[in-house]
Design goal:
The complex is a heterotrimer of chains A (559), B (296) and C (293). Chain A has 559 residues and is an alpha/beta fold. Chain A has three domains: 196 residues, Periplasmic binding protein-like II (D-Maltodextrin-Binding Protein, domain 2), CATH 3.40.190; 227 residues, 3-Layer(aba) Sandwich (D-Maltodextrin-Binding Protein, domain 2), CATH 3.40.190; 60 residues, no CATH class. Chain A has 20 helices and 14 strands. In chain A, the strands form five sheets. Chain A has a five-stranded mixed beta sheet. In chain A, helix 13 packs across helix 14, helix 16 crosses helix 17 and helix 17 packs across helix 18. Helix content of chain B is 72%, strand content 1%. Chain B has 296 residues and is an all-alpha fold. Chain B contains 14 helices and two strands. Chain B has a single domain, classed as MetI-like fold (Orthogonal Bundle). A two-stranded antiparallel ribbon of chain B has the order 1-2. Chain C is mainly α and 293 residues long. The two termini of chain C are 34 Å apart. The chains are: A alpha/beta (559), B mainly alpha (296), C mainly alpha (293). Chains in contact: A-B, A-C, B-C. At the A-B interface, helix 1, helix 3 and helix 19 of A face helix 2 and helix 13 of B.
């Protein structure tokens, strides 16, 4: 008996030591850190400078489901990787690739194992992981590489963000990652069935009362021929009726019209940080929603539409003719139900001063970073430069190599070693919108500044406007590029910046509980399960359950 | 001499399997050390700071802990108790069915869900429990209010328990049916002569006959009391039902992996393993004592 | 002497029917959805019969390379994984079924097995081991960590214990080695138990999704259940902010109800095919293995 026990303990001890050794070995890294001789060769340290000798880079990337691979192209071996090899003398290997939250898990496991690939993406919602990596000194300093090797287009687009997209990534004066394009103007706007409004002789709404009137008419007069009592009110998301930025089928514009900014860290006029969901204005917004729900002006069954695409199905089946959504969120399937369906996009409801308040996006999205142990941090910029020169057509020969593939529907995400990392101007959406508007209104296409993809969008939008082709793709292009894109930077627009867009140290512990409390509160008040005054109770609970800690942490970060 | 060769053979036969077990099960147990550390990936297991029992203290302090333990216990106990009752009742009904063909067909069908994965069943469940799904159709037909079951804190635990019972009742009944067939048929004949009706026979002959099996299976299940079913809940829960549906295993997964708190996640996992281990030892001791059952 | 059918018989019959029906209901519903059109399915108009019958979900599925490849990845995984499982299970169960007097070090091995059953190092350390062995992103990462299905070993061990000693002794007298005894006597006599653990192993490998999430990096190596699981995960709205409209739509179409239902139905087919063959054995196998009386 005694013998057995001793044996067991011995075994466990041996095992512990063994595994400890294993971990230590993996952290100290497979590549013994060479004294990085900075590449002095001025030829190499340029945006597209070719390495004299072949180097290898291992990347981890986020991919899309169903990348539609054709012509023998794979993420591991494709035309773009060939170009990177030939033009830059860089061999790209995929260390791992996965989708959305799967990617996060893989990153987490690899961080735990202390073994990161040479170049990798840090998903935008994990800004905190980025900070932890910086604290643990896992990321390479990109400052010098950015100066020398970021191409004109990259620097140009970055300038359109006024430095906002670099600021959160410069820690102690050193740039540790770069961010994908966090495009502006993705906020929710009001979408209404234009054909229904025309039929009933309704005007574009300005205030919340105008909107209620229109929905009331939709329901009472049934312009969609759904049969009496079958038309429903505003389509609303079942899980996040009140979300943050770009929350399709959310009700944010109603809150913004009373200057409430739920789910955002904001600063008041005294510079004090507060959580946007806790203000009295939010209560005001909830009152509006609750009244609308009671009157049936919000889809009575919105809570039940949980399955993916169910809320959209309410719109595409013509049951509802009103919703809030970003510029691109037009339900194309509606033309299968009603070939004459058309939508308009409106900046409404307006606030007391006649302004349409809306949030701006977080300054950064997915981040691209380099492992500290990797000797050539500049490859990041070289690869991105080449990719987008080819993709945007600045490199004509390169564009000719990949454009046919893109036209066949192969996802750019599958080809690029940087996955869905994107480079573009902050205001590209309204900019293109105006070009296409001019094209449709005057027939004049200012084609020099736009890419092939943009041109095809312009063509489709025009063909729809001219009645030449009314299929689903033309329907979408017309609504997105002509209808909605042109109201995004109208004079009544009033962009509002959140004070802070990321999580803090205690977020992972406290946020799940707080978010749950908050999301339930919205649903319960809107459908009348709890009285409006429950909001006050929520605010108190929110602070008690850790909201005060989070507020303090945000304050500390900002000051 | 011959005995020695035999022994060598035995060791050799065990060798490949043991190598696999040691590499993939025993060696990773060294990672348990992380539970006593503030594990920093950059430093590795060897150089991360030891913080003693701090992670365990945090478990006790965290407001969520109580709720999660409660959820785990409620769901697991519900599955064990209800699962047993339904399986026994079903076995009794099956035993009473005299149409052999019918019995066979029913048996074949009810074993089926046991072999389908929760990934697949989660898709099916979300279909039938959706607001406009079949369950709600039946509910409204009988004059009830429709409900979104899978995101309702009122219903989530019941569905997890019910779903698990449903998936396994046919399969679990196998053992009880077998126990019933091994009951001495002369007992029934004697009962018949005494004029016992069907119900009396069930009550006085069949049930007592399978009682040892029932006790045995229930005791053995005690070791599973902290296993509320990761695969099932992981594939069906959502943030809306964390309040009632979050169990230890899903929590460990979220905290340890998604939120990068490796040490804390390991500590919670270890906490669970230790309690499960104690329960299991007790359960096997009980089983050995009362029904003379020994697994080893 | 046939007894006449009583009311109780009818009630029992109805109850049994309901039990069986409850087990088929979700499957029938899913089949109906998979043959319906997208909008009807999303609005919940489909019950047991397809609405606006069409095959588009199945057509799309069979054009989707990823699904087909994942399907065969899973088949391959089952073949390889189950072979390894069966080999190791048989080899281990035999010596362990011996009395400690016959096999002296049995207890040490049993202890190791018990410890592995009770404790696990957790996800991260196991991941590190798999990674340091260079198994990441290979089929071996899916079959080796679970190469020894401990419960099956114990099940078979208990079955072997019930094999009459006389058979073995007779062979031993003839000079057969333990390996020969195992192969010529124990294996043929244990067919029901072997069929049972084979079924467990097949189902286990076919249904596993979590290890694929962790150990597989290349989409084209994903097993089927992992792939289906990744499709049904809710879309994260925060991620959608940075997607182009085309990407978002592709994602939405991918996770449509009809499409997912079709995939689920097809993924059940292999289980349904092997099920009747092994069913006739497994009732016997389970009972003997689990309950020694």
């Amino acid at each position: 008996m005694k013998y057995r026990k001793r044996y067991l303990i011995l075994l466990v001890l041996t095992v512990m030591v063994l595994s400890a050794c294993g971990a230590a070995e993996s952290t100290s890294g497979k590549k013994a850190e060479k004294n990085v001789e900075s590449v002095e060769d001025s030829q190499v340290m340029t945006p597209l400078g070719k390495y004299p000798e072949r180097i290898t880079v291992e990347v981890a990337k986020i991919i899309a489901a169903n990348p539609n691979l054709v012509d023998g192209q794979t993420p591991e071996d494709n035309v773009l990787l060939d170009w990177i090899r030939n033009e830059l003398n860089i061999d790209t290997k995929i260390a791992w690739q996965s989708q959305g939250s799967e990617y996060n898990n893989k990153l987490s496991l690899n961080v735990a194992g202390g073994e990161l690939p040479d170049m990798f993406v840090i998903p935008g919602e994990n800004y905190l992981t980025f900070r932890q990596m910086v604290d643990n000194d896992l990321l390479a300093d990109l400052t010098e590489a950015y100066e020398k090797c970021a191409g004109d287009y990259l620097k140009d687009t970055f300038e359109s963000y006024n430095g906002k997209n670099l600021e959160p990534l410069i820690i102690d004066g050193k740039l540790r990652a770069i961010s994908t394009a966090s495009l502006g103007y993705g906020h929710n706007i009001l979408w209404l069935r234009k054909d229904w409004m025309d039929k009933l002789g309704l005007q574009e709404p300005k205030t919340i009362d105008d909107l209620k009137h229109i929905i009331r008419e939709f329901i009472d007069k049934d312009p969609g021929n759904n049969g009496a009592g079958n038309t429903v009110g505003l389509a609303l998301d079942a899980v996040n009726p009140v979300g943050g930025y770009a929350n399709r089928h959310g009700a944010e514009p109603i809150f913004h019209s009373v200057e409430a900014y739920p789910k955002q860290w904001m600063k008041d006029e005294n510079g004090k940080v507060y959580y946007g969901s806790t203000t009295l204005q939010v209560k005001e917004g909830l009152e509006i929603l609750r009244d609308m729900y009671q009157e049936g002006l919000i889809d009575k069954q919105f809570l039940s539409r949980l399955g993916s695409g169910e809320t959209e199905a309410v719109l595409s089946s013509g049951l509802s003719g009103a919703y809030f959504g970003p510029w691109w969120a037009v339900p194309g399937d509606v033309i299968n139900t009603d070939p004459d369906a058309e939508f308009i996009a409106v900046n409404a409801p307006l606030d007391a001063n006649g302004k349409f308040n809306h949030l701006t996006p977080a300054p950064t999205g997915d981040l691209l970073a380099i492992n500290k142990k990797y000797e050539h941090p500049e490859v990041l910029f070289k690869i991105v430069n080449l990719e987008f020169d080819m993709y945007r057509g600045f490199n004509e020969e390169g564009n000719a190599a990949i454009q046919p593939l893109v036209d066949k529907g192969i996802s750019r995400i599958a080809l690029f070693p940087t996955g869905d990392f994107n480079v573009d101007y902050y205001d590209v959406v309204p900019k293109l919108g105006h070009i296409i508007k001019e094209y449709i209104d005057t027939g004049n296409l200012n084609s020099e500044t736009i890419s092939e993809y943009d041109k095809s969008q312009a063509e489709r939008a025009k063909q729809f406007a001219d009645g030449v082709n009314k299929d689903i793709n033309h329907f979408k292009a017309y609504h997105r590029r002509y209808i909605s894109s042109n109201i995004l930077d109208a004079p009544e627009n009033h962009p509002v910046d959140a004070a802070y867009n990321y999580t803090t140290t205690s977020s992972s512990l406290l946020k799940p509980t707080l978010d749950k409390l908050e999301n339930q509160m919205y649903l319960q008040i809107i459908i009348g399960e709890k009285p409006l005054d429950y909001f006050d109770e929520f605010v108190q609970q929110w602070y008690e359950l850790g909201g005060d800690v989070l507020t303090q942490e945000v304050e500390e970060i900002l000051n | 001499m011959k005995n020695k060769i035999e022994q060598l053979y035995y060791h050799a036969m065990l060798f490949p399997g043991m190598v696999a077990l040691i590499i993939f099960s025993i060696i990773p147990m060294g990672g348990i050390i992380m539970a006593f550390q503030n594990y920093q990936p950059a430093k590795g297991i060897l150089h991360s700071e030891f913080i003693g029992l701090d992670n365990f203290k945090r478990i006790l302090l965290l407001p969520d802990s109580k709720q999660i333990l409660y959820n785990t216990l409620i769901i697991a106990v519900g599955k064990i108790v209800l699962g047993m009752i339904v399986a026994v009742v079903f076995a009794l009904l099956l035993n009473e069915c005299r149409l052999l063909m019918y019995k066979k067909v029913v048996q074949t069908i009810v074993y089926l869900p046991h072999f389908l994965s929760w990934v697949i069943l989660a898709v099916m469940f979300s279909n039938i429990f959706s607001y406009t799904g079949i369950i709600n159709q039946i509910v409204t037909f009988f004059g009830g209010e429709p409900c979104m079951y899978l995101v309702s804190n009122k219903w989530f635990r019941s569905i997890m328990v019910g779903g698990d019972v449903w998936k396994h009742f046919g399969y679990n009944a196998i053992i009880y049916v077998a126990a019933m067939t091994s009951i001495d048929p002369t007992l029934y004949e004697a009962g018949e002569i005494d004029g016992a009706n069907r119900w009396k026979k069930i009550k006085h002959i069949t049930l007592p006959g399978i009682l040892p099996t029932i006790i045995l299976m229930t005791t053995l299940n005690m070791g599973k009391i902290l296993n509320a079913g990761f695969e099932q809940i992981f594939n069906m829960y959502s943030p809306l039902v964390y309040q009632t549906g979050d169990i230890i295993d899903t929590y460990v997964y979220r905290v340890g992996l998604v939120n990068l708190q490796y040490s804390f996640g390991t500590a919670v996992g270890l906490f669970k393993s230790i309690i499960s281990f104690i329960l299991l030892v007790v359960a096997y001791k009980l089983a050995a004592k009362y029904s003379d059952y020994r697994i080893f | 002497m046939r007894k006449k059918i009583t009311v109780a018989d009818i009630i029992i019959g109805i109850f049994l029917f309901l039990c069986a029906f409850s087990c088929l209901m979700p499957i029938l519903n899913t089949i109906a959805i998979s043959f319906s059109d997208r909008t009807s399915a999303a609005l919940g108009k489909v019950y047991y019969w397809p609405v606006n019958f069409n095959l588009s979900a199945y057509k799309a599925m069979f054009h989707e390379k990823q699904f087909i490849i994942s399907f065969f990845n899973s088949i391959f995984r089952v073949v390889l994984g189950v072979s390894i499982n069966m080999l190791l299970t048989i080899l281990m169960a035999y010596p362990l079924s011996k009395d400690p007097k016959v096999f002296k070090h049995k207890k040490i091995y049993m202890w190791i097995i018990i410890v592995t059953m009770m404790f696990s190092g957790g996800l991260v350390p196991t991941f590190l081991v798999v990674k340091s062995l260079g198994l990441m992103d290979t089929i071996w990462a899916l079959v080796l960590p679970g190469a020894v299905p401990v419960f099956n070993v114990i099940l078979l061990m208990n079955f072997f214990k019930g094999v009459p000693k006389s058979l073995e002794e007779a062979a031993a007298v003839d000079g057969a080695t333990p390996l020969q005894i195992l192969w010529k006597i124990f294996v043929p006599i244990s067919k029901p138990a072997l069929a049972t653990i084979a079924l467990f192993a097949i189902v286990g490998h076919w249904n596993a999704f979590f290890d694929g999430k962790i150990y597989i990096n290349s989409p084209l190596k994903l097993p089927l259940q992992t792939y289906i699981q990744s499709l049904t995960v809710d879309l994260n709205p925060e991620r959608m902010v940075n997607m182009t409209p085309e990407q978002i739509e592709q994602q939405m179409a991918m996770s449509s109800l009809t499409f997912n239902s079709a995939k689920v139905i097809v993924s059940m087919v292999p289980i349904l095919i092997i099920y009747p063959f092994i069913q006739k054995y497994f009732v016997k196998g389970i009972v003997v293995g689990a309950v020694k009386q």
